[in-house]
Amino acid sequence: MDKPKPAIPSHMMNGSSPLHVSTETRDKNERDSLFAAIQTSNRGRQAVDFDAAPDYFPKPSGSNADYRGAMERHKILHSEIEVEGHSDDRAARTPLATSRAQSPYTQHPTIDFDGLSWPSGGTRERKEATEEQKEERLAKLAGAVRTILECVGEDPDREGLRDTPERYAKAMLFFTKGYEENLRDIVNGAVFHEDHDELVIVKDIEIFSLCEHHLVPFTGKMHIGYIPNRRVIGLSKLARIAEMFSRRFQVQERLTKQVALALSEMLQPQGVAVVVESSHLCMVMRGVQKTGATTTTSCMLGRLRSTAKTREEFLSLINRK
Ligand SMILES: [Zn+2]
Do the Cβ atoms of 169 and 138 come closer than 8 Å? Predict the structure, then answer.
Protein backbone atom coordinates (compact mmCIF):
# COMPACT_ATOMS: atom_id res chain seq x y z
CA MET A 1 0.00 0.00 0.00
CA ASP A 2 1.31 3.41 -0.96
CA LYS A 3 1.54 6.16 1.57
CA PRO A 4 -0.80 9.05 0.85
CA LYS A 5 1.08 11.90 -0.77
CA PRO A 6 1.39 15.00 1.40
CA ALA A 7 -0.22 18.10 -0.03
CA ILE A 8 2.90 20.14 0.58
CA PRO A 9 6.05 19.00 -1.18
CA SER A 10 8.68 17.86 1.25
CA HIS A 11 11.21 20.46 0.21
CA MET A 12 8.85 23.18 1.35
CA MET A 13 8.35 21.64 4.74
CA ASN A 14 12.01 20.94 5.33
CA GLY A 15 13.28 24.16 3.91
CA SER A 16 15.75 22.37 1.72
CA SER A 17 16.53 23.13 -1.88
CA PRO A 18 13.65 22.98 -4.29
CA LEU A 19 15.99 21.60 -6.92
CA HIS A 20 15.25 18.03 -5.88
CA VAL A 21 18.79 17.20 -4.94
CA SER A 22 18.94 13.61 -3.85
CA THR A 23 19.92 13.09 -0.24
CA GLU A 24 22.91 11.15 -1.46
CA THR A 25 24.13 14.12 -3.48
CA ARG A 26 23.32 16.49 -0.65
CA ASP A 27 25.27 14.41 1.84
CA LYS A 28 28.20 14.12 -0.49
CA ASN A 29 28.19 17.86 -1.11
CA GLU A 30 28.11 18.46 2.62
CA ARG A 31 31.04 16.17 3.16
CA ASP A 32 32.95 17.81 0.33
CA SER A 33 32.51 21.28 1.73
CA LEU A 34 33.35 20.08 5.21
CA PHE A 35 36.50 18.48 3.89
CA ALA A 36 37.45 21.73 2.16
CA ALA A 37 36.81 23.68 5.37
CA ILE A 38 39.04 21.36 7.37
CA GLN A 39 41.78 21.64 4.74
CA THR A 40 41.58 25.42 4.92
CA SER A 41 41.71 25.36 8.69
CA ASN A 42 44.83 23.21 8.59
CA ARG A 43 46.56 25.99 6.70
CA GLY A 44 45.73 28.56 9.36
CA ARG A 45 43.51 31.57 9.30
CA GLN A 46 43.68 34.39 6.80
CA ALA A 47 42.66 37.72 8.19
CA VAL A 48 40.07 39.64 6.22
CA ASP A 49 41.70 42.80 4.96
CA PHE A 50 39.08 45.52 5.12
CA ASP A 51 41.48 48.13 3.79
CA ALA A 52 42.21 46.28 0.60
CA ALA A 53 40.43 47.30 -2.57
CA PRO A 54 37.34 45.20 -3.06
CA ASP A 55 37.87 42.39 -5.49
CA TYR A 56 34.32 41.94 -6.61
CA PHE A 57 34.91 42.75 -10.24
CA PRO A 58 37.49 41.51 -12.74
CA LYS A 59 40.34 43.91 -13.26
CA PRO A 60 39.48 46.30 -16.10
CA SER A 61 42.90 46.29 -17.75
CA GLY A 62 46.45 45.07 -17.44
CA SER A 63 45.32 41.53 -16.88
CA ASN A 64 45.25 40.56 -20.52
CA ALA A 65 48.20 38.27 -20.09
CA ASP A 66 46.43 36.48 -17.25
CA TYR A 67 43.35 36.24 -19.33
CA ARG A 68 45.23 34.80 -22.27
CA GLY A 69 46.96 32.39 -19.95
CA ALA A 70 43.63 31.23 -18.66
CA MET A 71 42.37 30.77 -22.18
CA GLU A 72 45.43 28.75 -23.12
CA ARG A 73 44.88 26.49 -20.16
CA HIS A 74 41.31 26.15 -21.16
CA LYS A 75 42.25 25.08 -24.66
CA ILE A 76 44.85 22.65 -23.51
CA LEU A 77 42.44 21.18 -21.07
CA HIS A 78 39.79 20.60 -23.65
CA SER A 79 42.05 19.11 -26.25
CA GLU A 80 43.42 16.97 -23.43
CA ILE A 81 47.05 17.82 -23.96
CA GLU A 82 49.51 17.97 -21.13
CA VAL A 83 47.28 16.94 -18.32
CA GLU A 84 50.21 16.87 -15.93
CA GLY A 85 50.97 20.52 -16.57
CA HIS A 86 47.36 21.21 -15.75
CA SER A 87 47.51 19.45 -12.42
CA ASP A 88 50.58 21.45 -11.45
CA ASP A 89 48.77 24.66 -12.10
CA ARG A 90 47.25 26.10 -8.97
CA ALA A 91 44.90 28.42 -10.77
CA ALA A 92 43.35 25.66 -12.79
CA ARG A 93 43.11 23.18 -9.98
CA THR A 94 39.74 22.48 -8.53
CA PRO A 95 39.73 22.52 -4.75
CA LEU A 96 38.34 19.05 -4.46
CA ALA A 97 39.88 16.51 -6.75
CA THR A 98 37.28 13.83 -7.22
CA SER A 99 39.82 11.70 -8.98
CA ARG A 100 41.32 10.66 -5.67
CA ALA A 101 41.50 6.94 -5.18
CA GLN A 102 38.54 5.82 -3.16
CA SER A 103 38.60 3.19 -0.50
CA PRO A 104 35.44 1.21 0.12
CA TYR A 105 35.03 3.22 3.31
CA THR A 106 35.54 6.73 2.21
CA GLN A 107 35.96 9.40 -0.44
CA HIS A 108 38.14 11.63 1.68
CA PRO A 109 41.38 11.07 3.51
CA THR A 110 39.53 11.69 6.75
CA ILE A 111 39.95 8.03 7.26
CA ASP A 112 42.86 7.63 4.97
CA PHE A 113 43.93 4.73 7.13
CA ASP A 114 47.46 4.69 5.92
CA GLY A 115 47.92 8.37 6.61
CA LEU A 116 46.49 8.00 10.12
CA SER A 117 43.73 10.49 9.41
CA TRP A 118 44.62 14.12 8.83
CA PRO A 119 48.27 13.44 9.32
CA SER A 120 51.01 15.90 9.85
CA GLY A 121 54.53 15.24 8.70
CA GLY A 122 55.63 13.31 11.73
CA THR A 123 52.55 11.23 12.35
CA ARG A 124 53.66 7.97 10.85
CA GLU A 125 57.17 8.55 12.13
CA ARG A 126 55.83 8.71 15.65
CA LYS A 127 53.71 5.63 15.39
CA GLU A 128 56.40 3.51 13.83
CA ALA A 129 59.37 4.76 15.80
CA THR A 130 61.80 2.24 17.24
CA GLU A 131 62.63 2.34 20.95
CA GLU A 132 65.85 4.12 20.07
CA GLN A 133 64.05 6.74 17.99
CA LYS A 134 61.56 7.26 20.81
CA GLU A 135 64.40 7.93 23.23
CA GLU A 136 65.89 10.37 20.77
CA ARG A 137 62.60 12.18 20.36
CA LEU A 138 62.11 12.44 24.10
CA ALA A 139 65.60 13.81 24.63
CA LYS A 140 65.15 16.42 21.91
CA LEU A 141 61.82 17.51 23.35
CA ALA A 142 63.23 17.63 26.88
CA GLY A 143 66.05 19.81 25.57
CA ALA A 144 63.50 22.22 24.17
CA VAL A 145 61.72 22.36 27.52
CA ARG A 146 65.01 23.12 29.23
CA THR A 147 65.38 26.02 26.80
CA ILE A 148 61.94 27.26 27.82
CA LEU A 149 62.95 27.14 31.48
CA GLU A 150 66.06 29.17 30.70
CA CYS A 151 64.13 31.68 28.63
CA VAL A 152 61.54 32.42 31.29
CA GLY A 153 64.33 33.19 33.74
CA GLU A 154 64.51 29.95 35.67
CA ASP A 155 67.48 27.87 36.63
CA PRO A 156 66.88 24.52 34.93
CA ASP A 157 69.46 22.95 37.23
CA ARG A 158 67.81 23.78 40.53
CA GLU A 159 66.60 20.74 42.35
CA GLY A 160 62.88 21.25 41.90
CA LEU A 161 63.20 21.55 38.14
CA ARG A 162 65.78 18.88 37.51
CA ASP A 163 63.40 16.28 36.12
CA THR A 164 60.86 18.71 34.74
CA PRO A 165 62.06 18.79 31.12
CA GLU A 166 61.78 15.05 30.71
CA ARG A 167 58.55 14.89 32.68
CA TYR A 168 57.02 17.61 30.55
CA ALA A 169 58.25 15.99 27.35
CA LYS A 170 56.51 12.77 28.32
CA ALA A 171 53.36 14.65 29.24
CA MET A 172 53.37 16.50 25.91
CA LEU A 173 53.69 13.25 24.00
CA PHE A 174 50.75 11.91 25.94
CA PHE A 175 48.68 15.05 25.32
CA THR A 176 49.29 14.57 21.61
CA LYS A 177 48.96 10.81 21.44
CA GLY A 178 46.15 11.22 18.96
CA TYR A 179 48.84 11.59 16.31
CA GLU A 180 49.77 7.97 16.86
CA GLU A 181 46.25 6.68 16.41
CA ASN A 182 44.19 6.05 13.35
CA LEU A 183 40.56 5.42 12.70
CA ARG A 184 41.08 1.96 11.30
CA ASP A 185 42.46 0.63 14.56
CA ILE A 186 39.74 2.36 16.51
CA VAL A 187 36.72 1.31 14.50
CA ASN A 188 37.96 -2.00 13.19
CA GLY A 189 35.29 -4.61 13.84
CA ALA A 190 33.06 -2.11 15.61
CA VAL A 191 30.86 -0.96 12.73
CA PHE A 192 27.85 -3.23 12.33
CA HIS A 193 24.97 -3.73 9.98
CA GLU A 194 21.79 -3.01 11.84
CA ASP A 195 18.34 -1.78 10.94
CA HIS A 196 18.17 0.90 13.56
CA ASP A 197 17.15 4.29 12.26
CA GLU A 198 16.51 6.30 15.39
CA LEU A 199 18.70 9.04 16.74
CA VAL A 200 21.67 7.72 18.73
CA ILE A 201 23.35 10.14 21.11
CA VAL A 202 26.42 9.95 23.29
CA LYS A 203 26.77 13.10 25.30
CA ASP A 204 29.23 14.60 27.74
CA ILE A 205 32.32 12.99 26.26
CA GLU A 206 35.15 14.71 28.07
CA ILE A 207 37.76 16.16 25.79
CA PHE A 208 41.23 17.47 26.53
CA SER A 209 42.88 19.19 23.63
CA LEU A 210 45.58 21.74 22.96
CA CYS A 211 44.93 24.97 21.11
CA GLU A 212 47.27 25.03 18.15
CA HIS A 213 47.85 28.76 18.46
CA HIS A 214 49.15 28.76 22.03
CA LEU A 215 49.75 25.06 22.80
CA VAL A 216 47.66 25.57 25.88
CA PRO A 217 44.80 23.26 26.83
CA PHE A 218 41.19 23.63 26.00
CA THR A 219 38.90 21.23 27.75
CA GLY A 220 35.24 20.53 27.68
CA LYS A 221 32.59 18.21 26.45
CA MET A 222 31.62 16.77 23.15
CA HIS A 223 28.15 15.54 22.27
CA ILE A 224 27.73 13.26 19.30
CA GLY A 225 24.50 12.21 17.66
CA TYR A 226 23.74 10.35 14.49
CA ILE A 227 20.83 8.73 12.71
CA PRO A 228 22.02 5.40 11.33
CA ASN A 229 21.48 4.21 7.84
CA ARG A 230 21.90 0.46 8.32
CA ARG A 231 25.32 0.96 9.85
CA VAL A 232 25.89 1.49 13.53
CA ILE A 233 29.09 1.92 15.48
CA GLY A 234 29.91 0.62 18.95
CA LEU A 235 29.05 3.44 21.33
CA SER A 236 32.39 3.46 23.12
CA LYS A 237 34.05 4.10 19.77
CA LEU A 238 32.48 7.53 19.55
CA ALA A 239 34.42 8.55 22.62
CA ARG A 240 37.58 6.99 21.19
CA ILE A 241 37.19 8.98 17.97
CA ALA A 242 36.64 12.18 19.96
CA GLU A 243 39.77 11.34 21.93
CA MET A 244 41.88 10.64 18.86
CA PHE A 245 41.07 13.95 17.21
CA SER A 246 41.25 15.99 20.40
CA ARG A 247 44.65 14.69 21.48
CA ARG A 248 46.28 16.67 18.71
CA PHE A 249 46.94 20.35 18.24
CA GLN A 250 43.56 21.69 17.32
CA VAL A 251 41.20 24.54 16.89
CA GLN A 252 37.82 23.72 18.32
CA GLU A 253 35.99 24.36 15.06
CA ARG A 254 38.15 21.89 13.17
CA LEU A 255 37.94 19.26 15.90
CA THR A 256 34.16 19.47 15.69
CA LYS A 257 34.18 19.12 11.92
CA GLN A 258 36.68 16.30 11.84
CA VAL A 259 34.65 14.13 14.17
CA ALA A 260 31.48 14.84 12.18
CA LEU A 261 33.14 14.12 8.87
CA ALA A 262 34.80 10.94 10.10
CA LEU A 263 31.45 9.57 11.26
CA SER A 264 29.73 10.70 8.13
CA GLU A 265 32.30 8.97 5.96
CA MET A 266 32.41 5.75 7.91
CA LEU A 267 28.75 5.26 8.65
CA GLN A 268 27.16 7.08 5.70
CA PRO A 269 24.34 7.84 8.13
CA GLN A 270 21.15 9.79 7.57
CA GLY A 271 22.54 12.55 9.72
CA VAL A 272 25.34 13.49 12.09
CA ALA A 273 25.59 16.19 14.73
CA VAL A 274 28.59 17.10 16.82
CA VAL A 275 28.54 19.81 19.47
CA VAL A 276 31.58 20.84 21.49
CA GLU A 277 31.45 23.08 24.54
CA SER A 278 34.79 23.99 25.97
CA SER A 279 36.82 26.42 27.92
CA HIS A 280 40.07 27.69 26.45
CA LEU A 281 42.88 28.24 28.89
CA CYS A 282 44.60 30.57 26.44
CA MET A 283 41.63 32.89 26.81
CA VAL A 284 40.88 32.34 30.49
CA MET A 285 44.48 32.69 31.69
CA ARG A 286 45.26 35.70 29.58
CA GLY A 287 42.18 37.45 30.85
CA VAL A 288 40.50 37.79 27.47
CA GLN A 289 37.61 35.77 28.72
CA LYS A 290 36.00 35.40 32.11
CA THR A 291 36.51 32.06 33.77
CA GLY A 292 33.52 29.88 33.22
CA ALA A 293 32.72 31.27 29.80
CA THR A 294 32.51 28.49 27.27
CA THR A 295 32.91 28.31 23.54
CA THR A 296 30.36 26.22 21.68
CA THR A 297 30.80 24.88 18.18
CA SER A 298 28.58 22.58 16.23
CA CYS A 299 28.55 20.71 12.99
CA MET A 300 25.37 19.17 11.61
CA LEU A 301 25.06 17.04 8.53
CA GLY A 302 22.33 15.30 6.56
CA ARG A 303 18.94 15.10 8.23
CA LEU A 304 20.28 16.66 11.39
CA ARG A 305 21.07 19.71 9.32
CA SER A 306 18.13 19.80 6.97
CA THR A 307 15.26 18.86 9.28
CA ALA A 308 14.58 21.36 12.02
CA LYS A 309 12.54 18.92 14.08
CA THR A 310 15.32 16.33 14.15
CA ARG A 311 17.87 18.96 15.00
CA GLU A 312 15.73 20.22 17.85
CA GLU A 313 15.29 16.71 19.16
CA PHE A 314 19.05 16.32 19.26
CA LEU A 315 19.59 19.66 20.95
CA SER A 316 16.93 19.09 23.57
CA LEU A 317 18.33 15.64 24.34
CA ILE A 318 21.86 16.91 24.86
CA ASN A 319 20.63 19.77 27.00
CA ARG A 320 18.64 17.55 29.33
CA LYS A 321 20.42 17.33 32.64
ZN1 LIG B 1 44.84 29.61 21.99
Answer: yes
Distance CA 236, CA 240 (A): 7
Interval between CA 212 and ligand 1 midpoint (Å): 6
Q: How far is the CA of 284 from the centre of ligand 1 (A)?
A: 10
Taking only the tens place, the pLDDT of each residue in 97-146 is: 333 344 444 455 555 555 556 656 667 788 888 999 999 999 999 999 99
- Could you say which of 3.40.50.300, 3.30.1130.10, 3.40.50.720, 3.30.1490.190 is the CATH number of the domain covering 189-318? 3.30.1130.10
Check the CA dihedral 107-111-115-117 and report its sign. Answer: positive
Which positions are catalytic?
A: 211-214, 252, 280, 282
d(CA 21, CA 58): 32
CATH superfamily of 121-179: GTP cyclohydrolase I, N-terminal domain (1.10.286.10)
Beta strands in the chain (DSSP E): 191-193, 200-211, 217-227, 231-233, 249-250, 271-280, 295-302
pTM here? 0.71
Give the Å distance between the CA of 220 and the centre of ligand 1.
14
First to last CA, the chain: 42
Q: Quote the ligand 1 centre to 295 CA distance (angstroms).
A: 12
How far does the centroid of ligand 1 lie from the alpha carbon of residue 151, in Å? Answer: 21
Q: What's the full length of the chain, in residues?
A: 321
How far is it, in rounded angstroms, from Cα 91 to Cα 83? 14
CA-angle at 103, arms to 102 and 107, nearest 5°:
50
Q: What are phi and psi of 258, to 5 degrees?
A: -65, -40
Q: Can you give the pLDDT at residue 206?
A: 97
Average pLDDT, the chain: 78
Q: How far, in Å, is the centroid of ligand 1 from the Cα of 45?
A: 13
